[in-house]
Amino acid sequence: MKILRLAIVIAFSLLASVTIFAQTPPADAGLLANPVYIKNCAKCHGKTAEGRHFGGPSLVSDKAAAASKEDILNIIVNGKGHMPKFAGKLTAEEIETLVRQTQALHKK
User: Fold this and answer.
1) Could you say which residues of the chain have pLDDT below 50?
2) Strands (E), the chain
3) How far apart are CA 56 and CA 72, in angstroms?
């Protein structure tokens, strides 16, 4: 009985650690691997950030590349057009990461 309990505890511990690490991308992970992007942005901007027909615009376009850090930040925080605002829905750190990773798409 003790061995069964121990096995259950170990299994749950492993499951919990896998879940935690699966949701936290490495610091150098790109936008497309970011769980915040996948959950909140990909349905409109696409899994590859190339935009979607009748959805959000491409984040890899020349127009997106020309946007300043402040422009991108303002759009995420306050929304624009059909895009909802994410102020109060995402943390400041999550928003800053999205801005940084969006800009990094154009530096490759």
Assistant:
1) 19-20, 22, 25
2) none
3) 14
How far apart CA 82 and CA 103 sit, in angstroms, is 21
pTM of the model: 0.72
Query: What gap in Å lies between CA 107 and CA 105, rounded to an integer?
Result: 6
pLDDT, tens digit, for every residue of 55-83? 899 999 999 999 999 999 999 999 999 99
Asked whether the beta carbons of 101 and 37 are under 8 A apart, the reply is yes
Distance between CA 92 and CA 89 in Å, rounded? 10
Tokens describing residue 104: 């990094």
Q: What is the pLDDT of residue 76?
A: 97
Count of alpha carbons within 13 angstroms of residue 32, beta-carbon side: 10
Query: Do 57 and 75 contact (CB within 8 A), yes or no?
Result: no
